[in-house]
Design brief:
This protein is of the alpha/beta class. The chain is built from 14 helices and 21 strands. It has a 6-stranded parallel beta sheet, with helices on both faces. Strands 17-18-19-21-20 form a 5-stranded mixed β-barrel. Helix 4 links the parallel strand 4 and strand 5. It binds iron/sulfur cluster (SF4). The site of iron/sulfur cluster has 10 residues, from helix 6. Iron/sulfur cluster (SF4) binds next to helix 6.
Length: 463
């Protein structure tokens, strides 16, 4: 059934509640689902209570992700029952990576769920909702990896984007790191054509966006079709986006060290709009563990990549992901991780204990590290990472940083925005300055943010 035909049958102003778990990619996907349902009269609401359509857009990256979803579904089942007792109808859908990985289990344990669909099937959401409304409660399961790229079927967004927006350019992954479910839940790598991305970026900028973060599970594996019939890497895509008037800042995440190529390094050197902050996960500093993780790079190769990036952009600040207690990780392996952190110096980092993700090769490894050892190692690593983050933030005190203000801060008369290095910066400023990039003199550093004053407001001038 076409969306138009369906729209004629649907009364306007239906309530759509989407709960999003996990990564920025899921945030982007949820916004696209809302775009798909908007022409059919569905408007977003803040609570599942009384909603006509409830979507849980799930993430499978953490242990017990499925259990969290089942627990949330327990509450949704009660709300659905209450709505039906009042003569209404609530369609419940579970989307995202848990749906992809555990669709059959969801249908078995939560038969009141009307629709279960994976990340590659959400462009068919309007049809699935129509089928659910027409059916007598038989569940719909769509966890296929369709041949047609879903991006060709997504409508242009009518919603007003933020000052800073996400734009998915690549999806899926062929790397098969042994701890990760993404290749199984998102499928093989797919890069959107460059023209489609540039057009979407143009619409965002026309609607007021000044900063775009390019998203992909392995974003720098991007290899999209270009208008000239060739293929562009991420560096070429960034150069082309930088030519859009009004697009002042470009970021990308998440990248893989193996896919940092010459073109991308050159873009860091040549494109001022490309912000000097890079999230480049390394996971471990031990070659033995990196090999066991199937990361396809060594600690030495990671360090050389960082050296080349820093040679191209000397003020580049780095962030990374770490997993401690991967199966078989010895004390020496862990020390190698601490050594790598000490040598490189990170401005930010995310660190976790290895947690078993069902369906991944590492989940069945015999030599699992005891929880207490993992906890001890994580605490030690985090002390070092936090020291580095604090030192980086403190090094900004006294500097003038251009801050893109995004929204009001916690206190009245205050705005919060981002520095080029992705730090949150608070400063007293009038509300109408949201969307402006303003020079801010940094006066104080907190562990997770900076505070400053607008230069022109205070009449302060940079030395
Ligand atoms: S590169 Fe990233 S997304 Fe791909 S398998 Fe490894 S951790 Fe998962």
């Amino acid at each position: 059934m076409s969306g138009a035909a369906f729209a004629q049958r649907v009364p306007m102003q239906k309530r759509l509640f989407i709960k999003t778990y996990g990564c920025q990619m899921n945030v982007y996907d949820s916004a696209r689902m809302a775009d798909l349902m908007a022409p059919l009269g569905y408007a977003p609401v803040a609570s599942a209570d009384g909603a006509d359509l409830v979507i849980l857009n799930t993430c499978h990256i953490r242990e017990k992700a499925a259990e969290k979803v089942f627990s949330e579904l327990g509450s949704i089942r009660r709300l659905k029952g209450a709505r039906e007792r009042q003569g209404g109808r609530m369609v419940v859908a579970v989307a995202g990576c848990v749906a992809q990985a555990e669709g059959d289990e969801i249908q078995r344990r939560a038969p009141f769920v009307d629709i279960v669909f994976g990340p590659q099937a959400y462009h068919r959401l309007p049809e699935m909702v129509a089928r659910a409304l027409d059916s007598a409660g038989e569940g719909i399961l769509d966890t296929s990896f369709p041949a047609e790229p879903k991006f060709d079927y997504l409508p242009e967004s009518a919603a007003t984007p933020g000052v800073s927006a996400f734009l998915t350019v690549q999806e899926g992954c062929d790397k098969f790191c042994t701890f990760c479910v993404v290749p199984y839940t998102r499928g093989a790598e797919y890069s959107r054509p460059a023209g489609q991305i540039i057009a979407e970026a143009g619409r965002l900028v026309a609607a007021g966006t000044r900063e775009i973060t390019l998203l992909g599970q392995n974003v720098n594996a991007y290899h999209g079709a270009a208008a000239d019939g060739g293929e562009w890497g991420l560096g070429e895509l960034i150069r082309s986006l930088a030519r859009l008037p009004g697009l002042d800042r470009i970021r990308y995440t998440t990248s893989h060290p193996r896919d940092v190529d010459d073109g991308l390094i050159a873009a860091h050197r040549d494109v001022p709009q490309l912000m000097p902050f890079l999230h480049l996960p390394v996971q471990s500093g031990s070659d033995r563990v990196l090999a066991a993780m199937n990361r396809r790079h060594t600690a030495g190769q990671y360090k050389r990549t960082v050296e080349r990036l820093r040679a191209a952009r000397p003020d580049l600040a780095l962030s990374s992901d770490f997993i401690v207690g991967y199966p078989g990780e010895s004390e020496d392996d862990f020390r190698a991780t601490l050594d790598l952190v000490a040598e490189i110096g990170f401005a930010q980092a995310f660190s976790f204990k290895y947690s078993l993700r069902p369906g991944t090769p590492a989940a069945t490894a015999a030599d699992q590290v005891p929880e207490a050892v993992k906890a001890e190692r994580l605490a030690e690593l985090q002390v070092l990472l936090q020291q580095q983050q604090r030192a980086f933030n403190e090094s900004c005190v006294g500097q003038v940083l251009p801050v893109l203000f995004e929204k009001p801060g916690r206190h009245s008369g205050q705005l919060v925005g981002r520095s080029p290095y992705l730090q949150s910066v608070h400063a007293p400023a009038a509300g109408d300055r949201v969307g402006e990039i303003v020079p801010v003199l940094i006066r104080a550093a907190e562990p997770n943010s900076l505070a400053g004053i607008l230069l022109e407001k205070e009449g302060v001038h940079a030395a």
